[in-house]
Amino acid sequence: MKFLRILSIFLLAAICSAADLTGNWAVKKPLEDGTYNWAYFNLKQDGPKITGTIRTTQFYYAITDSTGGPEGFRLTAGMLDGKSSRTVSYEGKLVGDDELHIISHRRNDTVEDVAHRVPAGEGAMPARVEPPALHKVPDNGLVRTPPMGWNSWNKFGHSINDAAVRGVADAMVSSGMKDAGYIYINIDDTWEGERDAKGNIQSNKKFPDMKALSDYVHSKGLKLGIYSSPGPNTCAGYEGSYGHEEQDARTYAAWGIDYLKYDWCGARILYKDEEMQAIYQKMGDALLATSRPIVYSLCQYGRQDVWKWGADVGGNLWRTTGDIRDAWDSMTRIGFAQDEHAPYAKPGHWNDPDMLEIGNGHMSDTEYKTHMSLWSMLSAPLIAGNDLRDMTPAIHDILTNREVIAIDQDKDGKQATRASKSGDREIWVKQLADGAAAIAVFNRSDKDAKAIVGAQAITAFNGSDKDDKVTVKLADIGIKETPKHVRDLWEHKDIKLDKKQPDYEATVPSHGVMLLRIKQ
């Protein structure tokens, strides 16, 4: 009896010591749209050391540090591309032989999951397809003025669905935004389902019939946009276009899609930034081959000086920056950093400082006027990001100010440049097709400023200290005599300058703007 008891203890110890984390593990998380988010752990245990890789949504990590073993372990992993400082940490334990209980630590919260063993290679990165040789993709002839429309991400994020898109399309028409020039209704990430047996991308259950939705949007006189990534996964972890570029382009065309936003995200785990141009060229060729007019929007955050080659890959617009937030510091940091990109804007090809946040509630109406003015001066795409079904009158008036929109949509497509700066006051100038000039006086300070429009110059200063001022001489922008036409585009009034009234003085509020159209 004693012998059997000793034997049982010995066998149990042997089984425990044989327990091993080595293998391929998968966490499957069902989502409300009928799809799944997956996380894969390819682990190798060598005594007290655990090595391997972790793949979650569009991120791919290598384990850099580990402690413990099957009975309890901790892992730290860093991005495999070696360029990002992003890390993840997990702790867990082996339960039985086929369950791995895992706790992931994400910012300020923890998430508990159960991973199961899966066959070796499942969830592994697909084989790398070498980038094509560079060539110039022909111009598609679209958006000769900056595109105007709406995108779902800033307001709806993951929650966007068919009903919301239809409602926004209805509101774009009924609100007068369509008449003001807004045309594109763009669905961002999280519409994607799985691929069918032939590899064709399907929409998930949030979008039961993408062709029917496209037909509905078109029936309103609007156009429909969609989103994908050149990587295996999108930013949110959904199916990307990697290895299916031509097939996806044909699917989009069959659905009646008019606009594609193509987000780098998941591609970075297969390609270097230096290969970005060739990868975007591949989809540019694919879209052109469909013979359907599809606007091509490059979303790769301004990396690799995209403004220098975006047009060559068939791009109609390209992001010059990281993601915008509905915050004064984010909007101004992005908007006022666009000066150097001006030479690359031209009809059909636009610098994109990201979507509008106007109406999403975290800036004041004054700040939203600055947002609208600055983007219009920059000849930027005007892609609204608020809920058009529920706008205040003030937000509606900002988004539909046709005099400001006309500055953005000027047919010459020239981008404004900074003409003068002193402290928190800046003056930007944009030359217009009819010989006029748009002049924006921005007051980025926390105090109101005074602006004086005179026959010879425009000057802005804070308080009573006129020595601390920002000035633009009208002669320097081609206005050599007292201008005959001066129009304040937010006040909707003409300003008459003559001998009786040689100057016009106005208050530019804190975080506000005065936007003028001046012609000889």
The poorly predicted ranges are 1-17
Helix content: 10-25%
Give the strand order of the largest sheet, numbering strands 1, 2, ... along the chain. 1-2-3-4-5-6-7-8
Indicate the multimeric state.
single chain
The average pLDDT is 93
Strand content range: 25-35%
Number of helices: 11
> How would a crystallographer describe the biggest sheet?
8 strands, antiparallel, barrel
Between the first and last Cα atoms, what is the distance in angstroms?
A: 110 Å
Gyration radius from CA atoms, angstroms: 28 Å
Number of strands: 28
Query: What is the global morphology?
Result: elongated
Description of the molecule:
The protein has 520 residues and is α+β, with helices and mostly antiparallel strands. 21% of the residues lie in helices and 32% in strands. It is built from eleven helices and 28 strands. Helix 8 links the parallel strand 16 and strand 17. The longest helix has 17 residues. The N terminus is likely disordered.
